[in-house]
Amino acid sequence: MFRSKAERKVTEMGYDPSRLPPGQYLTDKWPVLHAGSVPHVDRSLWTLRVFGEVENELTLTWSEFAALPHSSNVQDIHCVTRWSKFDTEFTGVHWRELAALVKPKPTAQYAIAHAEHGFTANVPLSYLADDNAILATHGDGAELTPDHGWPVRLVIPGKYFWKSAKWLTGIELRATDQPGFWERYGYNNNADPWAEERYEF
C-alpha cells in the first residue's frame, strides 16, 4: 500500500519507498535554493573559524583546511520545499578532525554554523558527531559549485537541508541554543523530515 503518488514513483524507480519522508517527492536533480545572491568567495582569502566553548580557538586557511584528513559518505537529502535526492555522495572533513584540534569544553552543547552574508544554522553539537555529518567540499564526485555552497558546506544528515549551511565560514560552540537565520523566520528548530517539522506554526 502506497502513501502517495510520490511513493509509487519511488518504487517504480527501483528504490525502497520507506526511504522517502512524508510529503516529499524524489528527484535525481539537485535543485538550487537560497535567499539572496550567491557570494563571491576568494578561496585564497577564505578562512574557517572554530570558536566559543573550546579550549583552543582556531582559524584555518583554505590550504590548512584542505590538508586535514578527508572522508566520504553517501546519504539521502531532503529539502523543506519537498524534494528529496537519494544516494548523494559528499566528500570533505569530518568534525572529529576539528574537534581534536579545538578540544570542545564540557559546556559545549550546541553548534552554530556561520556562513557568508551573515547566515547561520543551529544544531545540537551531537549532530556533528554523526558519521555522515561532514564539512563538504565535493558533492557527487565534483567540487561543489558556488550555488551549492562552494568552497565548504556543512552537511547535517537526517534533517531538512536548510540546516546544512552553504558557504561556511565558522562554527561556534555554545552552552545554549541560538536560533539560526531560517528559525528566526519561523522554521522549525528541530527540522525532522520524518515528522514533517517544517515550520513552528
UniProtKB/TrEMBL annotation:
Residue intervals of the Oxidoreductase molybdopterin-binding domain: 36-182
InterPro entries in UniProt: OxRdtase_Mopterin-bd_dom (IPR000572), OxRdtase_Mopterin-bd_sf (IPR036374)
CDD domains in alphabetical order: arch_bact_SO_family_Moco
Parts forming coiled coils: none
Xref: Gene3D superfamilies: Oxidoreductase, molybdopterin-binding domain (3.90.420.10)
The name this protein goes by in its record: Unannotated protein
Native source species: freshwater metagenome
